Amino acid sequence: MSKIVLVTGATSGFGRETVKMFAKAGHKVIAVGRRLDKLDELKNELNDCDICTVSLDVRDKEAVFTAIESLPSEYKNIDILVNNAGLALGLEKAPDALLEDWEIMIDTNIKGLLYMTKAILPTMVERKSGYIFNLGSIAGNWPYEGGNVYGSTKSFVQQFSFNLRNDLKGTNIRVSNIEPGFSKTEFSNVRFKGDDEKANAIYDGMQPLVGEDIANLIFTLSQLPEHVNVNSLEVMPTAQTWAGFSIEKNT
Ligand code: NDP
Ligand code: 8X3
Question: What is the predicted pLDDT for the residue at 52?
Answer without folding.
Answer: 97
